[in-house]
Structure formats: structure tokens, C-alpha cells
Design goal:
By secondary structure, the protein is an alpha/beta fold. The protein is about 40% helix and about 20% strand. It has three domains: about 70 residues, Orthogonal Bundle (Arc Repressor Mutant, subunit A), CATH 1.10.10; about 120 residues, 2-Layer Sandwich (Nucleotidyltransferase, domain 5); about 160 residues, 2-Layer Sandwich (Nucleotidyltransferase, domain 5), CATH 3.30.420.
Length: about 375
């Protein structure tokens, strides 16, 4: 069952109510009625259905806004678990979440995506079985490191993932756990996870992951914006002036990834004579104020800022969040901010926040849990 499995109008309405309570956007029947545009009686029926299903519970009386004090609504975190996995090239991070999305436990297991999907998923399933601890599995969220067709739950034209194209991750896990499965790419889920922390279910943001490679996700009105073919937010292959026409893995030249990614930073540092073997070592030198490394890091940040400036002017988000290994270096962050503010129209940056992400390595897990929450099956009499 993928993240776009058709649902009845009743199912969709109940899930909408559940998500509002889980996100803290509605804490009473009256607030639900107001947020969903429903008659109080209709909202009450939906709440009762969710209570009967063991997904919601009522707590102590809330604050009165005139009249009888409302009973507060909460998701029942004893109802079961949402499981998530962030699949990377060399490891998988596995999470167990409550229905509200809180991360209860995390384990990391080594994987090799080149071994193929069945061998990789066998390792993930073993970790799921361990971390679930016998809890009822309400839904599963999966992050894949490449373009994803969310209608089929498969990766599209992935690099370094032999055997994965056409493999239905959602169907495979649903057959094993009889739970709905949501699948998306890592950039979109990182953006969703970070956005929820800052803005809940409203506002617009962009989250950019600047590490060995570069990826980004766009959130519009609190939801992932994927575009017509799922490629929205892919600034990786934006052409950058001054890139020197370096060849990119996409087949073009001069793409952002060739001058602003961790891999390009390492290549440039080695060409400049620095004794480094990983992007992290280049960052460490920049943090120690080594002049060549600092210049390279700042230049990479300027290139990223140039690419983001066009996006900010066009999209006008409330915030740009930066995550990934390069963002631990303040010279990189400062260069991104400086270039965006320099190039963008003042109206586009009037209230714009550009800052390091807060959720760190857990952003993708939070996003996967939130996506999976929208698929939780709700028994109805």
C-alpha cells in the first residue's frame, strides 16, 4: 500500500482529524470542527470513531472560551507504533515512533544497496522486528536515496542501486507486516520532518541537504510539493556560472553538484594540494581556519546561495533550512546567507529565515513517520 493508495471520503476525513490532533493543531472537538469546517455534531462523530478505534483519547477539561469547558483530545500513544527507515548507501537508520510522531527508539544497521532490494529489505525487516518490541504496527514510512515514483513506491533511475528499479518496496513490506506503507525520497522527507518542527501544518519552506551530494525538498502549506513528475526541488543540476564546465553525473556540465557538494569540495581540496581523504577532513580544516579549506568551503556556500536565490525569488518561502555535513561549517552557512540576501529581491527576503536545521540525522525519520501517519487504517463499525 503506497502513500497514494485510494481512500474513501470517510477514511480521508478521519485521517485528517487524526493528523490534526497528532500535530497539536486541534485539541478539542470544537477546534476540530472549526479547522475542518464541519458541524460540531459531525466532528463529534468522527472523534468518537477514532476513540472507538483506540487511536484517540479524551483528557482533562480544556480552557473555556465561553460556555462549557471542552474535553481535550490526544492521540493514544499506546495504540501501537509507526516504524520508519532511512535507507542510505552504507547504512539504514530504523525508528520507532508513537502515533504522535515522537521518536522512541533508533537503531542503525549496515546495508549495501548494491546487494539488491531483497537482501537489503531482509536486514531492514530484522531491525523492524527488533525495534517494534511486539507493538502493533500501525504504519511504515520508508525513505529511499533517489527519485521516487510515489504511485508505485519505486525508485526511478537511481544511481548505485542495481536491481531496485521496479521493486515495489511498499507491497513487499505490506505483505510482511499487513500495515500501510508510505514511500518517498530522502530530500522530501527531510524537508517534511524539519518543517513540522518549526511550522506544524502551515507555511512554506525549503530544506537543502548539502553533503556528499546535494538534495532539497519543498513544503507548501505544510505539505510536500513534488511537482508533475516528482522532480520538484531538485536544484542539484542547476547550472552555475563559474563552474568551469565540469562534467556532472547527469550528463551535462557545470551543475551545482560539481562545485558545491562534499564530493566536489574534496576534489578541489586535493587539487589544491591539501592532504585530505574525505569531505569531513576538508570541513575540519576549515573549522580550524586553514586558509585554502576555508576559501573552498565559502565558495561552495556562495554557489549554493546563487542557486537558492532563484528559488527564493520565485517561491518566496518563509524559511530555508540547511542540513548535511557541510552545514556544520559556519563559513559555508554565512556564504549561503550572504549570497541569497545579496541577490534576492528585498520583498522575498523581508522575513526569510536561513538557518541550520534542528532535527539533524532524525529529520528523515520524522518526515517518514508523518507521511505514514496519513495512511493509518481506521476501523469503522
Amino acid at each position: 500500500m503506497s502513500s497514494v493508495t485510494p481512500a474513501s471520503s470517510d477514511d480521508a476525513a478521519l485521517r485528517a482529524a487524526l493528523r490534526l490532533v497528532a500535530h497539536g493543531a486541534a485539541t478539542s472537538r470544537s477546534e476540530l470542527a472549526e479547522r475542518l469546517g464541519l458541524a460540531p455534531s459531525t466532528a463529534g462523530l468522527r472523534v468518537q470513531t477514532l476513540i472507538d478505534a483506540g487511536l484517540l483519547r479524551e483528557g482533562a477539561d480544556g480552557a473555556s472560551r465561553g460556555g462549557r469547558r471542552p474535553r481535550t483530545l490526544h492521540v493514544d500513544d499506546e495504540a501501537g507504533a509507526i516504524l520508519t527507515v532511512d535507507l542510505g548507501g552504507g547504512h539504514a537508520r530504523i525508528g520507532r515512533h508513537t502515533l504522535s510522531g515522537a521518536l522512541q527508539d533508533v537503531v542503525s544497521v549496515p546495508v549495501n544497496l548494491a546487494d539488491g532490494p531483497r537482501a537489503t529489505m531482509a536486514l531492514v525487516e530484522a531491525a523492524f522486528d527488533q525495534i517494534a518490541g511486539g507493538s502493533r504496527i500501525l504504519a511504515i514510512g520508508v525513505s529511499l536515496p533517489g527519485p521516487v515514483d510515489i504511485e508505485t513506491g519505486t525508485v526511478v533511475q537511481p544511481s548505485r542501486m542495481p536491481g531496485w528499479p521496479g521493486f515495489r518496496v511498499d507491497e513487499h513490506l505490506h505483505a510482511r507486516y499487513s500495515a500501510p506503507v508510505a514511500v518517498d525520497n530522502d530530500a522530501n522527507l527531510a524537508a517534511l520532518g524539519e518543517h513540522r518542527v518549526h511550522f506544524g501544518t502551515t507555511h512554506h519552506s525549503i530544506t537543502v541537504k548539502a553533503g556528499t551530494a546535494i538534495g532539497s525538498g519543498i513544503i507548501v502549506d505544510g505539505e510536500v510539493h513534488r511537482g508533475a513528475t516528482g522532480a520538484a526541488g531538485d536544484i542539484t543540476h542547476t547550472r552555475i556560472d563559474g563552474s568551469g564546465d565540469l562534467p556532472c553525473s547527469c550528463g551535462n556540465t557545470g551543475c551545482l553538484e560539481t562545485v558545491a557538494s562534499g564530493a566536489s569540495l574534496l576534489r578541489q581540496a586535493q587539487a589544491a594540494g591539501l592532504d585530505v581523504r574525505t569531505p569531513a577532513e576538508v570541513i575540519a580544516l576549515a573549522l580550524d581556519a586553514e586558509p585554502v579549506a576555508t576559501t573552498l568551503v565559502r565558495t561552495a556556500g556562495t554557489h549554493l546561495g546563487q542557486a537558492l536565490a532563484g528559488v527564493v525569488n520565485f517561491f518566496n518561502p518563509h524559511a530555508v533550512f540547511l542540513t548535511g555535513s557541510l552545514t556544520v561549517a559556519e563559513p559555508f552557512l554565512a556564504a549561503v546567507r550572504s549570497r541569497v540576501y545579496e541577490v534576492c529581491h528585498p520583498l522575498a527576503t523581508k522575513s526569510l529565515r536561513i538557518e541550520a536545521a534542528q532535527t539533524g540525522a532524525d529529520a528523515i525519520l520524522f518526515g517518514a513517520a508523518d507521511l505514514a501517519l496519513g495512511l493509518v487504517e481506521i476501523p469503522q463499525n
